[in-house]
Automatic annotation (TrEMBL):
<feature type="DNA-binding region" description="H-T-H motif">
    <location>
        <begin position="28"/>
        <end position="47"/>
    </location>
</feature>
<keyword id="KW-0238">DNA-binding</keyword>
<feature type="domain" description="HTH tetR-type">
    <location>
        <begin position="5"/>
        <end position="65"/>
    </location>
</feature>
<dbReference type="InterPro" id="IPR009057">
    <property type="entry name" value="Homeodomain-like_sf"/>
</dbReference>
<dbReference type="InterPro" id="IPR050624">
    <property type="entry name" value="HTH-type_Tx_Regulator"/>
</dbReference>
<protein>
    <submittedName>
        <fullName>TetR/AcrR family transcriptional regulator</fullName>
    </submittedName>
</protein>
<dbReference type="InterPro" id="IPR001647">
    <property type="entry name" value="HTH_TetR"/>
</dbReference>
<dbReference type="Pfam" id="PF00440">
    <property type="entry name" value="TetR_N"/>
</dbReference>
Length: 205
């Protein structure tokens, strides 16, 4: 919102309150505009519809999340060249901490993405992250297998199910409005639990 006009900022703030309270589908555009103190005509001078207002609240954070997440995936491949693939699990946990910091720095936007986005292009936000994770991790395992640096196997369906369960559990911190310190402790234990399970199926050499 830093480059928005005062009118846009008012609409965004009022829209955020309405979306957080009622979710995108049930949010009233008329109420947003009225509570912001403007007319529908003024609104349409800045946004073409209710979803574009929602975009204005979450688009930057969503894009940054996906960009950083893809970079995190790429960084695992860097471990191959440095022959440090044994540290793959450790690196994943470090990135989890980084992403938790980012989530809590932008908590309301993630609340919108996780809990209020039904009916928008963001409604599959978690699943989209899961699909990236499964695709890139499968590629990583296949590369390591050719180099004899990993043992064990997992089929794609189970891989997707476990990853989906893990990511959903991580974002429960947002869904349940956990305080940051509580959430950090929660995901540390969650990572230990899931990492132990993964290592029983696939381990790095």
């Amino acid at each position: 919102m830093k480059n928005s006009t005062d009118t846009q900022k008012k609409l965004l703030e009022t829209g955020k309150k309405e979306f957080l309270k009622n979710g995108f589908k049930s949010a009233s555009l008329r109420k947003i505009v009225k509570d912001a103190g403007f007319t529908l005509g003024a609104f349409y001078g800045y946004y073409k519809d209710k979803e574009s207002l929602f975009d204005g609240l979450v688009e930057d954070v969503s894009n940054e999340m996906f960009t950083s997440f893809k970079k995190a995936q790429d960084s695992h491949f860097d471990l191959i060249d440095s022959e440090e693939t044994i540290n793959s699990t450790k690196l994943s946990t470090e990135y989890l901490r980084y992403f938790m910091d980012y989530i809590y720095d932008n908590f309301e936007q993630f609340k919108l993405l996780i809990c209020c986005a039904d009916g928008t292009k963001y409604e599959n936000f978690i699943n989209d992250l899961v699909n990236i994770e499964v695709e890139r991790t499968t590629e990583y395992y296949e590369t390591l297998r050719k180099l004899n640096k990993v043992k064990g196997n997992i089929n794609k369906q189970l891989h997707h199910m476990l990853t989906s369960a893990y990511f959903t559990a991580v974002f429960e911190t947002v869904a349940h409005d956990m305080a940051k310190e509580e959430a950090l402790g929660y995901v540390e234990e969650l990572a230990l639990f899931f990492n132990s399970g993964w290592e029983s199926l696939i381990s790095f050499k």
